[in-house]
Amino acid sequence: MVRVARALLVSQVALMGEYRAEIALWALSGLLPFIMLALWRQAPAGAALGLGPEGLDRYFLSAFLVRQFSVVWVVFAFEEDALLGRLSPYLLQPLHPLWRYVAAHLAEQLTRLPFAAAIVALFFAFNPGAFWWPSPGRLLLAWLATLLAFAIGFLLQSLIAALCFWSEKASALERLLFVPFLFLSGLLAPLAAFPPGVRAAAQWTPFPWLINFPARLLAGLPVDAAAGLGAQLAWIALLLPAALLLWRAGVRRYTAMGA
Amino acid sequence: MAGQLLRYGLTLRLYALTLRRFWGTAIAGQLEYQLNVLIELLAAAANLAGSLFILSLFFAPSAAGGSSPALGGWSWPQALVVQGIYTLLDGVATTWLRPNLGAIVTHVREGTLDFVLLKPIDSQFWLSLRTLSPAGLSELALGLGLIGWALPRTGAVVGPHQVALALVLLAAGGLILYALWFLLAATSIWFVKTWNATEVLRAALTAGRFPVTAYPPGLRLLFTLVLPVAFLTTVPAQALLGRSSGGWVAGSLLMAAISFALSRSFWRFALRHYTSASS
Q1: A72, A168, B33, B116: least CB-packed within 10 angstroms?
Q2: pTM value?
Q3: Each residue of A145-157: pLDDT tens digit?
C-alpha cells in the first residue's frame, strides 16, 4: 500500500518536473487575487471592512496561496484519458483510477511550490509592511483546511468527471461549477464584504470553505476554526459516497471509446 | 430462393442499422452541440451576474453615509458601462481569438502549418479568421445589453458623435486585444506549448473589468503602457460618456497601430524561424 503510493507519487513528481515551465505559467495565471487586492485597497469599501490595510494584504495573499494549493483539474485530465482510451488499462489495475489523479495533483502542487514561494517573496519585497508569521497552530490548521479544500474541490470535479462516462464533453459542465466558485469562494472579495443575506446563503454552498475559510486561518484573521473544519468534513462526507457511487455506475456502462 | 431472400434481408437490416447509427450519432452530435451552447449561455449569464455582484460590493452604502459611493471617480452606472464593454470584448475573444489562435499551436505541433503557408493567401489572415465559435455570441449580446441598459442611467448625453468615437476606440481596443493574443500564439513557433501563457493574459486582462482609475498609480501606469488594459475598456467607455480627451484618443489609436504593426512583423520574424514539425 505504502509502496504503491510512493511509486505513484515519485513517478508523478518526475512527470510534472518535465512540465515546469507550464506549471510556472499556471501559477502566474492565479494572480487575480492581487488585482482585486489593488482595487480593495484603493476603494472606500475596502476600508469599511474593518480588516485594516495589513489585514487586506494578508487575506488576499493567503487566498492566492490557498488557491495555488487547491487547484483541481481532474475533469480535464480524465476527459482526455477517456477519449484517448488510456482509461482502459487504468481500470484493469487493482487500484482505483482516481488515486492516480490524486497523486498527479499532489505532485503538481509540489512542483508549483517554488513558483508560489517566489511570488510570495516578490509580494513581500514590494510590501514589507504586510509581512507576518502565522503562529504554528494557525499554520497547521490552515494547511489542514487547504488540504480539505483540495479534497472537496477534487470530489466535486470527480462528480463531473464521472459524467464523462455518459457524455464525451462533460468538461463543459465544469464551467458551471467554476463560475459560482469564482464569485462565492472569497477569491475576489472576502466574504465579510458580502451583504448579510448573500453571505448567509453562500455559507450553505461548499464554495466559501474552499478559499475564504482557509485564507482567514492563514492570514491570522478572526475565524471559527471548529465550525469551518466541521463544514469541510460534512461536505466531504456528502461528496465522497456520491462521487464513488456515480463512478461505479459509470464504470459499469463504460465500453471504451470506439466500442 | 430462401437463401437469397435471407441475404437481401440481412443486407437491408445492415443498411438500416448503419443508417440508424449515422442518424443517431448525427443527432447526438447536434444535441451535444445544443447542450454546449446552452451551457455556455448559462455560464456567460452567471459570469456576468457574478461580476456585477462583485462590482456592487465596491458600491456598498458606507455606514458613515456621505456622498454616493464611487469607484475611482466612476459612479455605479458608469462602472457598468465599463463592465459591459469588457463583456463585449470577452465575447470577441471567445468567438474569434480563442478558437483561431488556439489552433495555431496545433498547427505547429502537427506540422499542418505547412499547408496554411502554402495557400495563396496571407497566412496571418487565414490563421486569425478561419473559424468562429458561436459560444461567445451570447457574451456579445449580454455586453451590448448591459451597455444599453446602463448608458441612459449615467445621465450622459449620448449623441452620434460619442457613439462614433466610441466605436472607433472600441475597434482600436479590439485590435490591441487581437495583437496581444496573436503575439502570444505566435511564440508557439518556438516553444510549441505556450498555450497556457494565454491563461496568464486572460487573468491579467480581467483587470479591464474595472475603470483604470480605480487602481493605485503604479498599476495604472502598468495597465496603460505595458499591458494596455486601459485602452480596451476605460477609454471607449469614456468616449461613450462624453468624457474622453484628445490625449487618450490619440494614445489609443497610436497603441492600436503599434500593436498591429508589431504583430505583423513578429509573425514574419517567427516564420523565418519556422522549420516545420519534423525538421
Answers
A1: B33
A2: 0.86
A3: 999 999 999 999 9
